Amino acid sequence: MKAYCPLCSHIVMRQRGVALITAILIVALVASVATYLAAQNQVRIQQMENLKGRAQAELLARAAVDWGRAILADDAMRGVVDDPSELWATVVVPQQTDGGQVGGRIDDQQALFNLNNLMWGGAAYPVDVARFQRLLTQLQLPTDLANGLVDWMDTDSVVTYPGGAEDGEYLQQEPPYRAGNRWLVDVDELYHVKGFNAKIIAQLRPFVTALPDRTAVNVNTASATVLAAILDNGSLSDANAIVLARQSRPIQDKQDLWKRFPNLPMQTTDASLDYGSRYFLVASQAQYGTAVVREQALLQRNGMGWPKLIWIKQM
Q1: Residue 293's beta-bridge partner residues?
Q2: Which domains are seen in the chain, by residue range?
């Protein structure tokens, strides 16, 4: 007959307890790992869905740009005059597609003042500098901003006073940088130019553009504000009269403009105003699932061919 050993019994029970706790910890660990892996798998699946949605939305947005090119190519075959009554000027509200939606609009960039007109051969072009200053005055902005922009784009290192700046001043910024010494590619470059800030640029943006060559303003699409800046000896009332007159019938050519407005200055009607446009901005917005893509594309139309894509960017 074996003697009862309390100490041995205690040891056995303790070992069983440790084993039970260890088993519970292992089960908990396995459950935690399984939960973590499941969660990570869901994250990966969601990431893949997001990437798929983003890719599909980008394709839809790019298709809207091609739609704009097709509309503009078709419009070119219908005549050389461009006005807001034409098909290209129709805003397409978001349309449902398979799994998403897409919409867009086309804006005439020659309805705006081309900031690159300020330069000619690497130096300031006084006629258009004066026009830009008139635009600034209409918007109640400092006319010195024109000198700052001239210095940013010209190829010399001479500071234009008042309001100008060259490398010497820009290199003192944090971080330092140099003047552009070239035409603007985009209006957003104004953020780097002395005197311009977010508020001023927002005020200017509806009236200005940056195009890759010198352009005339389309008299059939420009606002009265832009027209008044272009009319060298004209006024805002003259510009408003043009806007009113074109609503009944677009202005066809120089002779039509002179006939309707015989008092307009000849130098203005000669080269700075036009009746059709070559540059257009296509703005598209596409959604697929939860992914949303907004794009802008600058198109150049030459004759009746397929418009050239100058640049495209996502907003």
Answers
A1: 286
A2: 1-215+278-315 (1.10.40.60)
Query: 20: which residues sit within 8 A by CB, 6+ positions away?
Result: none
**Residue 304 pLDDT:** 78
Give the alpha-carbon dihedral of 41, 43, 44, 46, to 10 degrees: 120
Residues 65, 314 contacting (CB under 8 angstroms): no
Which residues of the chain fall short of a pLDDT of 50? none
Between helix 145-153 and helix 126-138 the angle, nearest 10°, is 140
Residue 200: partners with Cβ closer than 8 Å, 6 or more residues away: 141, 145, 190
CA-wise closest residue to 186 among 8, 311, 22 = 311
Q: Are 282 and 64 in contact (CB under 8 A)?
A: yes
Question: Is residue 248 within 8 Å of residue 256, measured between CB atoms?
Answer: no
Q: For residues 164 and 250, what is the distance between their CA atoms, to the nearest angstrom?
A: 40
d(CA 68, CA 106): 7
Q: How far apart are CA 16 and CA 12, in angstroms?
A: 6
Query: What does the pLDDT look like over 30-47, one tens digit per residue?
Result: 666 556 556 565 656 556
CA-to-CA distance for 8 and 102, rounded, in angstroms? 79
Both tokens of residue 80? 């050389």
* Rounded Cα distance, 132 and 171, in Å: 27
